[in-house]
Amino acid sequence: MKLFLGWFYPQLMSTYGDRGNIIALSYWAKILGIDLEVCPISLNDPYEKILKMDILFMGGAQDKQQEIVSKDLKNGKSKALKKAIEAGVSGLFVCGAYQFLGRYYKAADGTKIPGLSIFDLYTENPGESFPRLIGDIGIKTKIAKDEIVVGFENHGGRTYLSNKNLAFGEVIFGFGNNGKDKTEGIFYKNTIGTYLHGPILPKNPKVTFFLLEKAIERKYKRKILVKEFDEEWEKQAREIVIRNNRDR
Ligand code: GLN
């Protein structure tokens, strides 16, 4: 079984260890007997490349990089991305990348960066005089039903979903989409948009399995049953984060 993993803008969109998600996907793919080929998708690459991918990943960045990338996404890439998401390709979009999936991102200096409008959501950064939303975060998700998915968030933007039922998770501790309505991220078909850096996948193997399982299901029309693996280290890492944030 072979899967292609499209990694959007590795040089520009990869903050707070987001590259660790590629390492986690590669690690678990190997254990599951999947040959995973990582294919960078960079500035000026043809959009057709996106349509050959089984998993898509884009990490976070600061406002400046988002501006550059937003221009590159315009020429055909946004349509290809929308098509892939609608077709059920596995996708993970973190922080700045998640913000792209919405209608727009208003940066700290007021610049409006147009989004891809794949989802009915928008993000606004209220400006430098407002605190960034920084710290550990724990959420309840449909993917890892009896576990709290943990990560680390650091964003100035506040995201608002028109349909809160599409949230990826419910905030247990931390800020999530906007620090107010307890929603975190977006979850649609097999795509996850989230503020969780950390990076998210090494700490939360269930989310990693979800992306790999769905990609195999789609491409090979078969289910790989992820059995119980030894996830003791990951479990302990999550428990420490949860313990440290008990009183928030
Ligand atoms: N620039 C965005 C914000 O501050 C995204 C930050 C990030 O990707 N870590 O909201």
Describe this structure in words.
The chain has 248 residues and is α/β, with parallel strands linked by helices. It has one domain: Class I glutamine amidotransferase (GATase) domain (Rossmann fold, 3-Layer(aba) Sandwich), CATH 3.40.50. Helices cover 31% and strands 27% of the residues. Strands 2-1-3-4-14-13 form a six-stranded mixed sheet. The chain has a four-stranded mixed sheet with strand order 6-5-7-10, with helices on one face. Helix 1 (20-31) packs across helix 7 (205-220). The mean pLDDT is 95. Residues 15, 60-63, 66, 95-96, 125, 154-157 line the site of glutamine.
Number of helices: 8
| Number of structural domains | 1
Small-molecule components bound: glutamine
The strands making up the biggest β-sheet line up spatially as 2-1-3-4-14-13
CATH class: Alpha Beta
CATH superfamily: Class I glutamine amidotransferase (GATase) domain
CATH-defined topology: Rossmann fold
Order of helices and strands: EHEHEHHEHEEEEEEEEEEHHH
Mean pLDDT: 95
Please give the share of residues in helix. Answer: 25-40%
Strand content: 25-35%
Tell me the distance between the termini: 44 Å
What's the total count of β strands? 14
The biggest beta sheet is recorded as: 6 strands, mixed
| Class derived from helix and strand content | alpha/beta
Low-confidence runs: none
CATH architecture: 3-Layer(aba) Sandwich
What gyration radius follows from the Cα positions, in whole Å?
A: 17 Å
Shape: globular
